[in-house]
């Protein structure tokens, strides 16, 4: 450094020119080559997300058997449209059923609720018809009935039979209660005026075991026919009833005879309480049409009636009529013996429904303890009458008899006693007995004795010598008269001829009056016929009573 060196520029020494320094620039760490796998990954992720988002829900369905089902082949259908497919079939852990796993379309994810139903559609032959015939060629499939309400669900218990109704059907369900199910079953038809408007969709025994609840479905618009005054009755089989009105046969259709059925109707009534827009939670299912049409009332009153005559044919359940209207039933019939009078009497306990009687304006008869007393004072009496001469059934008839003896309402064993009057047969028997008593009072023996004595006297008179002498004297007198007539013949012949002419005219007039075609003759002949018929009837009655005296008490038919 101490040597002096003259500075030289680059032109003086080219070999000693300064070297250019490299400029270092940082390059990107990601090469374009890596974009290809990144794009592929992004596409894969997108496809995966898209696949997962479009993939439908997976459900498990439990069936008792997998008959007709195959994994990867069996379809899940809704309205005959494929909406899924069975992916696997396994046996349940308890070996009592099979677990079918199926994958459905994404659109049905919102319709898998606790109300969703699955069942296997296969050929079925039932009493109500044949279904599933299309599966004979296409094979069995799982049918789906989506649910729109309820909690979401992915595990289901499959139905062994198709549901009677699906969610796509418009209508309304009603619950009926009956003492027993009878011949009804799921699918039994429901009729309105012999037209099928619904069917039975379910039934269950009540918790207390006292009745059966039956669910029926009525399709729209027929469900609007049900009101608060609608009555349902069991229309199964053939209903044959024999009553005082005769023999009645009632049936809805041949199908109801085979599988049972239910009918209903809405009653027209003046009852203001029945005209309500509020439907009850349950409807009673009556056994017959007559029972359905008969009104039921909660308010009941019981009365006692005593009868002295026979009540054969009066049974528990026999009707009680007031002015010909059914107002109650007979509850009990007994036979009582009175030791003091040594007589029998028959107490009959009846139950009357006062609400069957309404006052003007459709109002109920108010509860009045003195009402029955006033009715009895006005002549209300009970009487047993024949409901049917064919069956011999009797009923209790309540009516007013103002001419009957005045009576008051008594009490016996806590029941008010309604007075009674004899039956028409008893009244007739009393009249016949009175007639026979009068006949017995006639001295027939004395009359016969007198007639015999009179006949003997006539016979003695006819055969007496005095009568024979009188006849001889009469013959002599007649001979003298003939002689006198011969002498006078020439004198009075013209006058006799005129008299004979007048007599002939008179006889012709009389003959015209009593001829066969004359009114007098016809009236006399009719009178003689009536007298003869009356005499014959009296002889027949007297002869019959002589041979059957018990007919006075029991009548001619029972007397035999």
Keywords:
alpha+beta; seven-stranded mixed sheet; 10 helices; Mce/MlaD
What does this structure look like?
It is a single chain. Helix content is 30%, strand content 29%. The protein is an alpha+beta fold and 560 residues long. The chain has five domains: 54-159, no CATH class; 171-293, no CATH class; 301-432, no CATH class; 448-481, no CATH class; 519-550. The strands form six sheets. Strands 19, 20, 21, 22, 23, 26, 27, 28 and 29 form a nine-stranded mixed β-sheet that branches. A hairpin with a 4-residue loop joins strand 22 (336-338) and strand 23 (343-352). Helix 6 (424-441) crosses helix 10 (551-559). The protein is elongated.
DSSP summary: helix tally: 10
Would you tell me the overall average pLDDT? 78
From the alpha carbons, calculate the radius of gyration and give it in angstroms. 55 Å
Q: Helices and strands: which structural class?
A: alpha+beta
Biggest beta sheet summary = 9 strands, mixed
User: What low-confidence regions span 5 or more consecutive residues with pLDDT below 50?
Assistant: 1-11
- Tally of distinct domains: 5
The geometry reads as elongated
Number of strands: 29
* N-C termini distance: 178 Å
Helix fraction? Answer: 25-40%
Strand content: 25-35%
Main location: membrane
Transmembrane segments: 30-49
Keywords: Cell inner membrane, Cell membrane, Coiled coil, Membrane, Transmembrane, Transmembrane helix
GO cellular component, one term: plasma membrane
